[in-house]
Amino acid sequence: MSYIVNGMIAVMDYIHSVTSSWGLSIIGLTLLVRLVILPFTIMQARSSQKLALIQPETQRLQKKYKDDPERLNMEIMELYRKHKVNPASSCLLLVIQFPVLWAVIRALEAHPALKSATFLGIALGQPEKVFLPVLAVATTYLAVRLSPTMGGGVQQQGQGQNAVIVAMLGIMWYFSFRFAAAVSIYIITANIAGLFERFLVPRGETAGEGARSK
């Protein structure tokens, strides 16, 4: 982890040598991190789209075998194999993002220059406990709801996915409230970048389109 943190600090130092702005250095680091994890974002988006596409068939199996859980599991696994769906891959991005976020937090908190730096009048080395946490939560909500990894499946996947969204909002609020403003700027920038990433992800068939095509 220390190698990753030191690498992030080196990236910020380089960007600062070009821009003379620590705020832009954080934004540049954020965009680089998003670029690195973009392949995983696309992978998860495609997996989520496939899950949404076979959702009607999954629901049909759940009704048909509601009294036989073992048979239901077998049929659903066969459905996943048939459509080449790996449900675990839909969680891959979260598994990757949180260690990355923690590494970024360590880098931002450890960088000595950020402790006294400012950006747009905001002290980067101190928590900003009003505006930035609200903006971080708002952009997180938009990024999650509009994310291609959700693929419009929030309503389809129901309470389980909604619980994940609420948990993410709570975590982002805590990080923004607890840590230096530099962390909030990273979160906000990452969320905005995520909104643009949805245009880079191929749009698959929706569940309705898949049903009509059969």
From TrEMBL:
<comment type="similarity">
    <text>Belongs to the OXA1/ALB3/YidC family.</text>
</comment>
<keyword id="KW-0812">Transmembrane</keyword>
<protein>
    <submittedName>
        <fullName>Membrane protein insertase YidC</fullName>
    </submittedName>
</protein>
<dbReference type="GO" id="GO:0032977">
    <property type="term" value="F:membrane insertase activity"/>
</dbReference>
<dbReference type="GO" id="GO:0051205">
    <property type="term" value="P:protein insertion into membrane"/>
</dbReference>
<keyword id="KW-1003">Cell membrane</keyword>
<dbReference type="Pfam" id="PF02096">
    <property type="entry name" value="60KD_IMP"/>
</dbReference>
<keyword id="KW-1133">Transmembrane helix</keyword>
<dbReference type="InterPro" id="IPR001708">
    <property type="entry name" value="YidC/ALB3/OXA1/COX18"/>
</dbReference>
<keyword id="KW-0653">Protein transport</keyword>
<dbReference type="GO" id="GO:0005886">
    <property type="term" value="C:plasma membrane"/>
</dbReference>
<keyword id="KW-0813">Transport</keyword>
<feature type="transmembrane region" description="Helical">
    <location>
        <begin position="20"/>
        <end position="42"/>
    </location>
</feature>
<dbReference type="GO" id="GO:0015031">
    <property type="term" value="P:protein transport"/>
</dbReference>
<dbReference type="InterPro" id="IPR047196">
    <property type="entry name" value="YidC_ALB_C"/>
</dbReference>
<feature type="domain" description="Membrane insertase YidC/Oxa/ALB C-terminal">
    <location>
        <begin position="22"/>
        <end position="201"/>
    </location>
</feature>
<keyword id="KW-0143">Chaperone</keyword>
<dbReference type="InterPro" id="IPR028055">
    <property type="entry name" value="YidC/Oxa/ALB_C"/>
</dbReference>
<feature type="transmembrane region" description="Helical">
    <location>
        <begin position="163"/>
        <end position="188"/>
    </location>
</feature>
<keyword id="KW-0472">Membrane</keyword>
